[in-house]
Automatic annotation (TrEMBL):
Residue span of region Disordered: 1-52
Main location group: membrane
Gene Ontology molecular function terms on file: transmembrane transporter activity
One GO cellular component, as annotated: plasma membrane
Similarity comment: family membership: Belongs to the major facilitator superfamily.
Annotated organism of origin: Streptomyces pacificus
Signal peptide, first to last residue: none
Keywords recorded for this protein, A-Z: Cell membrane, Membrane, Transmembrane, Transmembrane helix, Transport
Name of the protein: MFS transporter
Sequence intervals crossing the membrane: 63-85, 97-115, 127-146, 152-174, 181-203, 215-235, 263-285, 305-323, 330-347, 353-376, 388-408, 414-434
Membrane topology type: Multi-pass membrane protein
Record's keyword annotation contains Ubl conjugation: no
Record bears the keyword Cell membrane: yes
Amino acid sequence: MRAYFRGMPSASTGAPTTVGAHSSPCPEPATEPATEPGTEPGTDATTPPRLAPGVPGYRRMSLALFAAGIAAFALLYSTQALLPAVSHEFGVTAGTASWTVSAATGALALCVLPLSALSERFGRVRLMTVSLVAATALGLLVPFAPGPEWLVALRAVQGAALAGIPASAMAYLAEEVRPKALIATIGLFVAGNSVGGMSGRIVTGWVAQLWGWRAALAAVGLMAVVCTVAFRLLLPKARHFTPGSLDPGALARTVRGHLSDPLLMRLYGIGALFMTVFGAVYTVIGYRLVGDPFGLPQGVVGSVFLVYLVGTASSAAAGRLVGKLGRRGALYLAVGTTAAGLLLSLADSLAAVLAGLVLITAGFFAGHAVASAAVSRTATTGRAQASALYQSAYYLGSSAGGTLGAVAFHSGGWAGTVLLGLLAVLGVVSITLYGSYAARARVPVPVPVRENRHLLSAAAARH
């Protein structure tokens, strides 16, 4: 994304790079020189090559993280399509029922940073495995919650358990994958998230219609068991991980450094605002579709989440979008697509609402893939913490979006939820424009040719 935010510090000296016309939110990778097949630029034959398409292990890694993304998103949002049924059984409002989603995403947001520190000490693969196993075990207990308070509490613990997945996965990819393949690989991981969100909601919708929402949650738990086993069997051993310490002071310094970085802060804001839109829309959409004028049954409402396939495609295509439009162009396209979908969904036509959901989903997943990849590429040290802070902002946005979206729906109907989404989209545009302005303000003014010659002559005279 040209002239977008600002130059990043040099990895070797810590000095800022010169900001010119080609600055971007995550600096463009340097052109890789020609090397022997199977080796990585800048390494010798004894260094294990980083993974990339065509390198042994890349396909297994992609499939493993795809499975992890399916399990994580299916578990995290397992109650979202069931909120009308939960409201009906427990006699609670949409705002109260939405806490079964917001508690999970909020707990994840709070726990992702400390768990990312554990991944620096004990390894990305180990922490992802423990997190998936714990969250899956809790997923098998959630269906037995005796009341709304227990349901919310179990979901909060489950969200905390899932916190080890997102930051560890991003850090694992940043360490194990070649820079040029990173955006596309993260796009595949995000695509797994979208498939998990889609399949979890479809399964819960139809199973709930046949056997009730508790059986639906049990089905998601069993699906997560299969994905967890696949993840553990497929994921290659980390070859570029170096264990760090659990020094709280060092962690605090790393976090302060990331939080004082204007570029990273803008990316965190973009992720949070995109997720606010997405959380609000998909928390409330079930209530709108089961009510007037649509009156759809629970199974059909669950099938609406097939539009997540669009998100799978748009996130996987994020690398190509950046290549054609630049990062700033890709973000603007994602924002425009999301806003168009919000406005289209206002119509009292099922076809228009579905088309709006398609656009919202495509825009969200494209924007998320670009922003999260930018964070992984920007942080030269403390990658796990940088990714963890992004994930914290992202899931806090989800938690806020789910709760505020339900409140807005209760107060102003679907139009209230759409207004909330448009305000969040406007926030993304404002951050992007400000970043572009800040980058242009730092571009050094070229010295005129005539003055340049005078300076060169003076220098020659001095020497």
